[in-house]
């Protein structure tokens, strides 16, 4: 039977997975990663902490490893992420406020330049809004101001004119204060000619809580003239798993896939790694997990079948 990636491609979309370098020593894991998906996102090693650990010293070895693996498997790569309030090196906090815009531009220019032609998308700015729709008070917001997002997009476009440039965030899958704020920003960027091409909805979801407005929300962003990608999908549950929860999770995954399939400009879906063996959830939400379509032993769960059948249209 065809893979998730093949079924997605037949619908004009991709179905991908995040991965991380330490996992690439796990041969059975890599075998599925390499065959089942037609898109890869490096889960950590393109972040500022990894790519510019000391000011002006760029380091691409680990990210290059992921990119070349993807290339050897004919998988596209989403770049993640250029400017984020987390996982940046400590020296950034010591940059004088008046110099931070130049430092940010230099980072974006170098990283997007290095991967020019090798990534289909960049998550240019990640998680810049609070739940109530105000700007998160990150080091970039405090020291550069509201304009830092537009400036990051302009620098990314100049460095890599072929990559589609995305704003990426969580809890913007449904209509609400946070997605309204992102919507207003995209609308403003379009009016002002700021080069934005897409919105990434991370979709770190909770069992039984796929937002009912998800398709409508994807549609309203598409209507602004941007693409939408589901960029970090997982659906966590209270442990332990049981049959009832697995069935609910399968239904939830199906709902997300169908919401994307219903909108032409929803270009693809990425799970935030594909197996419970390497999920970030249990370490951050104790007592929760089992969020992905393969279990810890790399066996397919009901969620896998639901995704497969939704993509296949059966
Ligand atoms: O690299 C060190 C390693 O040397 C050390 O032994 C180990 C001990 O804990 O930690 C390793 O660093 C971890 C890093 O992942 C690399 O594995 C950090 O502790 C850990 O906090 C970090 O977590 C990452 C997290 O972002 C940080 O916020 C997750 O792997 C990654 O999946 C997660 O991804 C984010 C997206 O980028 C943005 N959206 C939310 C998503 C989930 O948090």
Automatic annotation (TrEMBL):
Keywords: Carbohydrate metabolism, Glycosidase, Hydrolase, Polysaccharide degradation, Secreted, Signal, Xylan degradation
Primary subcellular site in the record, as a coarse category: secreted
Compartmental location: Secreted
Highest taxon of source: Bacteria
Chain coiled-coil ranges: none
Location of the active site: 232 (nucleophile)
Reactions catalysed: Endohydrolysis of (1->4)-beta-D-xylosidic linkages in xylans
EC number: 3.2.1.8
Keyword Zinc: no
Limits of the GH10 domain: 18-310
Family, per entry: Belongs to the glycosyl hydrolase 10 (cellulase F) family.
Listed name of the protein: Beta-xylanase
Originating species: Phytohabitans aurantiacus
Shown chain mapped onto the complete sequence: 30 to 343 of 453
């Amino acid at each position: 039977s065809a893979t998730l990636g093949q079924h997605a491609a037949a619908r004009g979309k991709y179905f991908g997975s995040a991965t991380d370098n330490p996992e690439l020593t796990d041969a059975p894991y890599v075998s599925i990663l390499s065959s089942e998906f037609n898109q890869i996102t490096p889960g950590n090693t393109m972040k500022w902490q990894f790519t510019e650990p000391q000011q002006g010293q760029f380091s691409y070895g680990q990210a290059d490893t992921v990119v070349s693996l993807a290339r050897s498997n004919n998988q596209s790569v989403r770049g993640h992420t250029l400017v984020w309030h987390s996982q940046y090196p400590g020296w950034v906090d010591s940059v004088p406020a008046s110099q931070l815009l130049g430092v940010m531009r230099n980072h974006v220019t170098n990283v997007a330049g290095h991967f020019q032609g090798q990534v289909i998308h960049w998550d240019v700015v990640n998680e810049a809004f609070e739940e109530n729709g105000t700007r998160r008070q990150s080091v970039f917001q405090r020291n550069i101001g509201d304009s830092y997002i537009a400036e990051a997009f302009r620098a990314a476009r100049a460095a890599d004119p072929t990559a589609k440039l995305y704003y990426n965030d969580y809890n913007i899958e449904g209509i609400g204060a946070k997605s309204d704020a992102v919507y207003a920003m995209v609308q403003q960027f379009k009016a002002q000619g700021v080069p934005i091409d897409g919105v990434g909805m991370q979709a770190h979801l909770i069992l039984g809580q796929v937002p009912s407005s998800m398709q409508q929300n994807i549609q309203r962003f598409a209507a602004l003239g941007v693409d939408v990608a589901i960029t970090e999908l997982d659906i966590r549950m209270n442990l332990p798993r049981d049959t009832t929860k697995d069935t609910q999770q399968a239904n939830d995954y199906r709902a997300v896939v169908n919401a994307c399939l219903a909108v032409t400009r929803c270009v693809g879906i990425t799970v935030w790694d594909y197996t419970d063996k390497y999920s970030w959830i249990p370490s951050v939400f104790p007592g929760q997990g089992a969020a992905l379509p393969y279990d810890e032993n790399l066996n397919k769960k009901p969620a896998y079948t639901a995704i497969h059948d939704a993509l296949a249209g059966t």
